[in-house]
Input
Amino acid sequence: MTRFLLRARSAADAFALLACVLACFFLACAASAPPASAQLRNPDTSVNPTASSVNERQLLEQRRIISGRGTIPDVRSYNIVQPAGREWRRFKEITLRWLGGIAILGMLGLLVAFYLIRGMVRIEAGRSGRTLVRFNGFERFVHWMTATCFVVLALSGLNITFGNELLMPLVGAEGFASWSQWAKYAHNYLSFPFTLRVIVIFLMWVAWNIPGRLDVEWLKEGGGLIGNKHPPAPRFNAGQKMIYWVVIVGGTAVAATGYLLMFPFYVTDIAGMQLAQMVHSTVAVLFIAVMIAHAYIGTIGMQGAFEAMWDGKVDVNWAKQHHSAWLAEETAKQHASSPSQGRMAPAE
Ligand code: HEM
Output
């Protein structure tokens, strides 16, 4: 450029050339700068430098995770904001509490009303004085171990859902913290024997829990709970079969989702974890409501039922009233074998 200027024939040539260069420079600058109209301004017309940057609301409306950059190996730590988590939090803090409260208190209310109206379902013919083996020692052991694990899992789980609001004000922050720590250990460790026993229950009783023709009749008659008819039933009636499948399906669902939560990020990402928590807690509170009904009918709801799982024997008249098809089968078996080795015995 300097050589060119030196070679210019006159000062006028040099001046024209310089003017040209400057004009080009200003034109280029003008083209790259935003037009005045595009610059966002404050109400007092001064330029607002952050006006076009993303605001918090826009950020939170994003469905995807907003990530930054980092240098440590744990790439999940680069996630800065996960706006979809707000929906999950709303579920956990509001929806789940309503659902759990309605399911559990609603079931308790229904059972109290049912008890007041119907009372205990009694053995109509009275006790016969003869008993029949209904559950062997292994079946009872598995049942009570599963029930114990279930109660601890339910109480320690409900502590996560409701403890902050319901228990902490009563026991204080410190008491709640140490109880919650133990409850959490219990929830984690008892999940293993619980899962194992759900598998054993599945194998042990599946043969008697396949729906059949008698179940339809039983359901049509309200199972003998509503009204006074006692439809014939095999070893497990339709109501008990439903409880069985709730335990198998519900137990599998809480176990599968529970292990996803217990071993985070091994199998799924944050969205999967949130879904797992939602499924786990929803199934859990419904499961608890159903098991409360099961415990009711096995204790104060029906005379003679508890002893079946306690010492394994039931009164023959109880069996006749509630499981006549099963009683007929057992009697036929007894007749086929030696009467002295039969499973029916006089009550002690
Ligand atoms: C069988 C295997 C189970 C496993 C592996 C398991 C695991 C877990 C885990 C890891 C959590 C999250 C705990 C936390 O946030 O710190 C949880 C929460 C919970 N669990 Fe379980 N659990 C199991 C069974 C059950 C059962 C049987 C019930 C109830 C009947 C239950 C009820 C709950 C409840 C209510 C919560 C709290 C949900 C919430 O409010 O976030 N769980 N469970």
